[in-house]
Amino acid sequence: MRGTYCLLIKVKKEGLMKVGSLGRIKFKRGIYIYVGSAMNGIEKRVARHVREKKRKFWHIDYLLGSKNTYIEKVFYREGSKGECKVARSFAKDAEPVEKFGCSDCNCVSHLFRLKKNLSVMSAAITRNYYGHFRELGADELHCLSGNGEISEEYESSL
After folding, report:
1. Which tens digit of pLDDT belongs to each residue from 128-139?
2. CA 122/CA 8 separation, integer angstroms
3. Strand, coil or helix: what is 92?
4. Most buried among 12, 32, 72, 127, by the most CB within 10 A?
């Protein structure tokens, strides 16, 4: 399955983190949404994001590599690459982490800290507000983790 996906990520503790070529970024405590695309398979890409051990390649790998972050929910939409359009639509509901995840496009960001609560954003995403996304269920996410459990904590800290 090819398309666009959104990761709702919880940052449990405020702190500075080195994010590849972006340098050190201060992350506030809260819920963030990351928008990505996977033209070679959403399942494989999300499974990679969930995996604890991986080479840090994308900006999101640095954030998810912290023991103070975890993926709360995953949403996806099949079809052509549409991550930039979706990312731009979040600007009114969330504050961008400038230049994060968008080194190959002209977007301000592909990572946003939510201004609204998680249940409001989850409902908005699945009710066509951002383009008819479906939620990846907990059982499906559980299977993608590859080790039989969803890890809420990762190896390195902020």
Report:
1. 445 567 777 655
2. 9
3. helix
4. 32
